[in-house]
């Protein structure tokens, strides 16, 4: 073979290798169906006897409902595709928000509690605020600037005040300062702010983190903590016990063993929940009306992250419940179904 031909063959092989690598990285990192043992099985009986229910829509979008009042965490429903996020400016989809409001009767939502200002949490705030004029939006100044970018009136906006409980109907909610997942190459703006009203469409990178918060929800004797990101402020939760923990596991498998151990100690071991529900594990580049699937290898190894959580939970005799569709999940330990 001549040198020239050899070079062409090498280049061809290199491109083939690159394409194969990209195809692999875009594959889901495991299958939800392999975790059937932990998946919640809907039961009419248990769902109807519980006062407080919750639906999970992927990432850390959770809707709490007691039949009268709703509390929404984040409210990210538009879920633009990976190519839109990488190559275009992104924006909230008014028709998706309208459909969710109708389907889920979101007019009863008194407050949207926002965990931080990255687009996979905060993209839809402005549109939700406009279509739900009775709803308060609670978050950091960066979060409020995302709502301001869509001209949401100031009286709907509340700057988050950590450790100051707020009441909405029968719900008591308390924000707790938290820590974001460790930075990555495309997500390295931790602590940076959205310092001015952010108009959409905007690049995903314009949605700066602007500090992170966990939320404690108390209702009818139940305590629930929502921790969206895989990060913990040391000893922040040490005096708290909860019944149900919604625990972010994004990129847990990509961290060191020490980090994983510390994160699970600071959360699961400290809070001693009866049930842990993993969140922020789904491929958020897929539309909201599809069953959730694992993140692609590009972003995480979800199969591995889930196994790390399950192992720690089983050691501590905590029940793991995996939710992959927005079904009503009862938050009452007496009726929380055995998976
Ligand atoms: Zn984030």
CATH architecture of the largest domain: 4-Layer Sandwich
Q: Strand content of the residues, in percent?
A: 15-25%
> How many individual helices?
9
Q: If you average the pLDDT, what whole number results?
A: 93
Name of the level-1 CATH class of the largest domain: Alpha Beta
As a percent range, the share of helical residues equals: 25-40%
List cofactors, ions and other ligands: zinc ion
Gross morphology: globular
CATH topology of the largest domain: Metallo-beta-lactamase, Chain A
How many domain units? 2
Number of strands: 14
User: By CATH's scheme, which homologous superfamily of the largest domain applies?
Assistant: Ribonuclease Z/Hydroxyacylglutathione hydrolase-like
- What structural class is derived from the secondary structure elements? alpha/beta
Which sequence of SSEs, written as H and E, runs from N to C?
A: HHEEEHHEHHEHEEEEEEHEHEE
List the uncertain runs: none
Radius of gyration: 21 Å
Described by strand count, sense and barrel closure, the largest sheet is: 7 strands, mixed
User: Strands across the major sheet, in which order?
Assistant: 6-5-4-3-2-1-14
Keywords: Membrane, Transmembrane, Transmembrane helix
InterPro entries: Metallo-B-lactamas, RibonucZ/Hydroxyglut_hydro, UPF0173_UPF0282_UlaG_hydrolase
Pfam family, one: Lactamase_B_2
Transmembrane segments: 7-26
